[in-house]
Design brief:
Largest sheet: 2 strands, parallel
Number of strands: 2
Strand order of the largest sheet: 1-2
Shape: rod-shaped
Order of helices and strands: HEHEHH
Distance between the termini: 63 Å
Helix content: 55-70%
Radius of gyration: 24 Å
Strand content: 5-15%
Structural class: mainly alpha
Length: about 80
């Protein structure tokens, strides 16, 4: 990652105001090492995918753990 930020700096980039990332591990640290004032934002598309994956995995566990027993009215006439 530092080679990327080094190429930016060597290419004449003096300041990066904002950078939109896919939340790649270590990117924040690397960009801030060269451009300390940069505002990092996560891409909403990538964030939505991650949020959905987390919700799906938590949802299936949560559903198993919070399933309520049927009321007597719901079971009337059932064996």
């Amino acid at each position: 990652m530092s080679s990327y930020t080094e190429r930016l700096k060597n290419g004449g980039i003096e300041c990066v105001f904002a950078d939109c990332t896919d939340n790649f591990m270590g990117f924040d640290t690397a960009i801030h090492a060269r451009f300390s004032q940069t505002e990092i934002q996560n891409c909403i598309i990538h964030q939505a995918v991650v949020d959905e994956q987390v919700a799906t995995s938590l949802g299936s566990a949560e559903t198993r753990n919070t399933r309520k027993s049927p009321s007597p009215e719901e079971t009337t006439g059932q064996i």
